[in-house]
Backbone:
């Protein structure tokens, strides 16, 4: 069993991991940057090590400093959280070489899923539905024209090394194809150092629905239902919920089985998320697999009553999953709102600064994950999420009401927040009837 874990992250997710470790009787090592010396994770962990300067590249992305902190403190494992180095297969391989356990997927699975064209080929072989398109990489424009004519416009050109919306271009006809391909390749090269692209049919107004999976090191894989993440603004998730308003038990079973197949096909281990697009006719298509614990993991924790971070640690310790698929019971309706330090009335400009006062809501079915406290100075260097507010009700209507009550009680002074934006979203008739897709928040102005 692991008895000391280094948490290579900050903010609320670092706290979340520290709490899971404490419950398991595992010692914790926090790492922090000079900008985070007063942060809660650095103060609360059993030990804390400063790993460098304020900029992420000088600290939370500094592999050598993090491995040195393991060496100094005797930590036997690293939990990477999300963002930062969480999807660095290079770091996983370094950990393997110095006998440090990585609390996350194995490097082979990470790399297999990191290359999107390759991941798609793996899914086709495994019988997981994918969007119609090219068989892998498209080499030249004549190739592209043939494939696009075959599948029909509009099409998307996507970077194989991409993810999260970068390196994607749309072409509505053959005239637009060449410039779309050139632009996608350029952006891919700039952001990922690799200009390989593939082509897909453009799915009009889909929903983003993802399935949480858990996989142990003995080939057991289970799924824990879905999260509907269609409420996004410019590729930033704003509100997530489970169940999805469009879900049926039959569709959940089909998507769950597909997610399990996806994980098995790449030899995936630990917690992961399989992202799908779902079209108006409820056809679903594999998009990508996220090889980390995600920001919105509490939605699944509350719906399934399973501590995902504890499960991650138990799996990395080499224990077989003790939960079988038939044990999984999803109940009620869960909604998560991300509370950001930003100004929706000013183009969502980040609003770092000192939290002069904070009051967080509570009560039956209300959870808040945050590292904020009165007097805390939100640094300008990192993302601006300051809290996740999660509520569970017996059904969607009760969850929406509970979230509105909780947001109404929440008070943050000193910085601008998106609390009122979230309240406006929750009041919207289309949101309330579950009538939205991935373009909803970009079309409608709730600021
Ligand atoms: C798509 C799509 C429509 N059709 N693929 C954007 C980020 C990347 N993860 C996949 N993305 C999309 N791929 C096909 N064939 C629309 C998107 C998309 C999107 C997907 C999920 C959530 C928000 C989105 C916002 C814009 C576009």
Residues:
């Amino acid at each position: 069993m692991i008895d000391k874990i280094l948490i290579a992250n900050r903010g609320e997710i670092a706290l979340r991991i520290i709490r899971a470790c404490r419950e398991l009787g595992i010692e914790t090592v926090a790492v922090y940057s000079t900008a985070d010396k007063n942060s809660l994770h650095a103060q609360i962990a059993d030990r804390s090590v400063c790993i460098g300067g304020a900029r992420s590249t000088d600290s939370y992305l500094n592999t050598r400093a993090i491995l040195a902190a393991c060496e100094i403190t005797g930590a036997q494992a690293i939990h990477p959280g999300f963002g930062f180095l969480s999807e660095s297969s290079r770091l996983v391989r370094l950990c393997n070489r110095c006998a440090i356990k990585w609390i996350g997927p194995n490097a082979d699975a990470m790399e297999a899923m990191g290359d999107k064209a390759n991941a798609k080929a793996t899914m086709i072989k495994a019988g997981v539905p994918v969007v119609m398109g090219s068989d892998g990489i498209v080499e030249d424009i004549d190739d592209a024209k043939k494939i696009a004519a075959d599948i029909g416009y509009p099409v998307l050109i996507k970077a194989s090394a991409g993810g999260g919306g970068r390196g994607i271009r749309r072409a509505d006809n053959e005239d637009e194809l060449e410039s779309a391909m050139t632009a996608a390749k350029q952006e891919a090269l700039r952001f990922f150092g690799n200009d390989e692209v593939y082509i897909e049919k453009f799915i009009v107004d889909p929903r983003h629905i993802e399935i949480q999976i858990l996989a142990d090191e003995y080939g057991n894989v289970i799924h824990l239902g879905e999260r509907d993440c269609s409420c996004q603004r410019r590729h930033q998730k704003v509100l997530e919920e489970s169940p999805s308003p469009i879900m049926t038990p039959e569709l959940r079973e089909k998507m769950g089985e597909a997610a399990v197949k996806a994980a098995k096909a790449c030899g995936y281990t630990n917690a992961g998320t399989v992202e799908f697009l779902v079209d108006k006719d409820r056809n679903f298509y594999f998009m990508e697999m996220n090889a980390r614990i995600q920001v919105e993991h509490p939605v699944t924790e509350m719906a399934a009553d399973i501590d995902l971070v504890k499960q991650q640690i138990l799996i990395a310790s080499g224990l077989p999953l003790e939960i079988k698929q038939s044990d999984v019971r999803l109940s009620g309706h869960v909604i998560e709102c991300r509370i950001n330090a930003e100004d929706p009335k000013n183009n969502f400009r980040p609003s770092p600064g000192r939290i002069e006062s904070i009051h967080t809501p509570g009560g039956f079915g209300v959870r808040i994950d945050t590292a904020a406290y009165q007097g805390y100075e939100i640094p300008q260097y990192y993302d601006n999420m300051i809290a996740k507010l999660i509520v569970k009700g017996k059904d969607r209507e009760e969850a929406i009401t509970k979230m509105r009550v909780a947001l109404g009680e929440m008070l943050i002074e000193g910085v601008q927040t998106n609390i009122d934006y979230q309240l406006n979203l929750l009041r919207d008739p289309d949101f309330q009837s579950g009538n939205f897709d991935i373009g909803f928040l970009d079309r409608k102005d709730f600021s």
In short: Residues 211 and 226 are 4 Å apart (CA to CA). The chain has a mean pLDDT of 97.
